[in-house]
């Protein structure tokens, strides 16, 4: 990428981070509901399991756009923060796992 494209991406991410920090916190129930709602939109391509304040999304054949949308939804709705990602691209789409921590210690 060009230096300008990298600078633009960094600026966009900084703005997004600032916007997320400015949002009011959510409680554990709201975080769990937002996580569930975002995951349901993935249909058969996504399944989530949650233990305490950590949730693991398992992807099977998801599109990059589906993953991007899911991450955006759980970051804003559940105040989730991705902490680990092991995703591979194959002919059928993206498969693997994404681990997030939830604000509010959702359980």
- Unreliable runs, pLDDT <50, ≥5 residues? none
- Principal-axes geometry comes out as flat
Number of strands: 4
Residue-averaged pLDDT:
88
Binned, the helix content reads 40-55%
Alpha carbon gap, first and last residue:
41 Å
**Whole-number radius of gyration?**
15 Å
| Multimerization status | single chain
Strand order of the largest sheet: 1-2-4-3
- Give the helix/strand class: alpha+beta
Characterize the main sheet: 4 strands, antiparallel
Share in β-strands: 25-35%
- In sequence order, what are the helices and strands, one letter per element? HHEEHEE
Number of helical segments? 3
Defining key terms:
4 strands, alpha+beta, 107 residues
Précis, in short:
The protein has 107 residues and is an alpha+beta fold. Helix content is 44%, strand content 32%.
